[in-house]
Specification:
Two copies of one chain form a homodimer.
Chain A: H1 2-9, H2 15-28, E1 37-38, H3 40-47, H4 51-64, E2 67-70, E3 74-77, H5 82-106, H6 109-125, H7 131-149, H8 152-163, H9 166-173, H10 179-195, H11 198-229
Antiparallel strand pairs in A: 1-3, 2-3
The structure holds a DNA duplex (30 and 30 nucleotides).
Chain lengths: ~240, ~240
DNA sequence: TTATACTCTTATGTATACAAAAAACACAGG
DNA sequence: CCTGTGTTTTTTGTATACATAAGAGTATAA
């Protein structure tokens, strides 16, 4: 019942956190594009708050690497280079495998059931055009594995690494040709974890991430090709400002 | 020469960053103890700035997990439970091994030389009582391995994980009995990386971290025993406030 | 036309002000 | 002595003010 009190109290969220989550989502979804300036007054007017919570939110985005600060010029949305993405995926591959192996040992029957459901849900959705739901259920599938590790630090890091690629997630899921393969990989991963077979789990997850990497790198290259069309004859980017 | 201009320009550091680094060091070194409140006005007076940079620094510490926010109560230095430390060390073990294996493939001659130097420096210091220098050179040794990975994301994460244990670093290095073993382990790691022998590197680093884990967990238990002596008869902690 | 100096505007960095929540305190009543 | 209640104090959360740096624009001179 002290839980109930807590639940009531937790309804309060500081404005800075609302702003943080709002900006964060906007960046990860690509609504704010790399290179775009985050101007405090504009954001403050847009969100109906003062500069203070905006600035505090930007400090968090800064630490997370989603924006970079230019001294006395403010924050701009961080660009992700192909090298950055490769680095992220390299680390993520290792940690996803680690999570899978830990899940083999530690997963509970409930979580195993959820893993199965997520896999089946993906299979049902894979031939539709509902890419958003498909992405969500894919996230769910991996979330279950993370949860099974019972290691909060690992979960936090993996979530962060995964979010670095949200901008490209929908892009590469639109390549419907890969859905069948994703589905197969999910099944392999599920089976390996169910049996507690760390070797198979490790191999299946490794393949899964490798495929994802290739798809994402293809998507980012496509994206960059488009971007280049927006550059002027001197090869300089057109300035893009926040509204 | 545009470098020179940059060097001059980089002399400027926003107050918020100075405050951030100051508070961060104070927490990691244990000068601010877990549970201690960070009161904005006091800190502002102490550091001779206004609340604004203090608050922005706290936002970063919050995201880093070094402080936890209590709504409308402010920030307190985060406590690390034994479970937290185990989680951190579990992830760190995996990533340190990953870094070591990558170093086997990618290390440059210069970095290999630095690795050797760091190892020798450690050997020279291991029988002195200069624990601070010993800790520094131990950090240096691992930094070289990180640098050899050529993966900035991995480096950032590893640094962060390592820093989570700075509070206990000096504690466990005071256990002089372990110095000889640490020295041996460094040598094994160096040799494995020099030969490009991923299997040996992986094994040596794994042992290294395992030993470190045991030492740190022993230190934290010792620490907690002391802490319990500070609790009153009701088992409640004595409040500790920032000056 | 191009370069340069000067102004003017805009946005950041820091300090301060103000409202409201929480804690500390004091006091009356059992 | 304890307990509950009203009051004061402290501290946070948010808004605003002010100084200054960076950039944009403008006019002038070569």
């Amino acid at each position: 019942m002290s839980q109930d009190i807590n639940a009531v109290m937790n309804e309060y969220l500081p404005l800075r956190d609302v702003v943080f989550q709002t900006l964060r989502q906007a960046i990860l979804r690509g609504e704010l594009e790399p290179g775009e300036r985050l101007m405090e007054i504009h954001l403050a007017n847009r969100l109906g708050v003062s500069r203070t919570p905006i600035r505090e939110a930007i400090r968090k985005l800064e630490l997370e690497g989603l924006v970079v600060m230019i001294p006395r010029r403010g924050a701009i949305v961080a660009s992700i280079t192909e090298k950055d993405l490769k680095d992220v995926l390299e680390v993520r591959r290792t940690l996803e495998i680690m999570a899978g192996e830990m899940a083999c040992e530690r997963i509970t029957p409930e979580l195993l059931e959820q893993l199965k459901s997520a896999g089946e849900e993906f299979r049902r959705l894979k031939d539709t055009n509902d890419f958003t739901s498909l992405a969500e259920v894919d996230v769910k599938f991996h979330d279950v594995i993370y949860a099974a590790t019972d290691n909060q630090r690992l979960i936090t890091i993996l979530n962060n690494l995964r979010e670095q690629m949200y901008r490209y997630r929908l892009e590469y899921l639109k390549d419907t040709g890969s859905h069948e393969r994703l589905n197969t990989e999910h099944y392999e991963i599920y089976e390996a974890i169910r049996k507690g077979d760390k070797t198979s789990a490790s191999a299946a997850i490794g393949r899964h991430i490798d495929n994802q990497r290739d798809a994402i790198l293809a998507a980012i290259r496509e994206h960059e090709k488009e971007e280049n069309n927006k550059t002027d004859k001197n090869g300089k980017m057109k300035p893009r400002n926040a509204e």
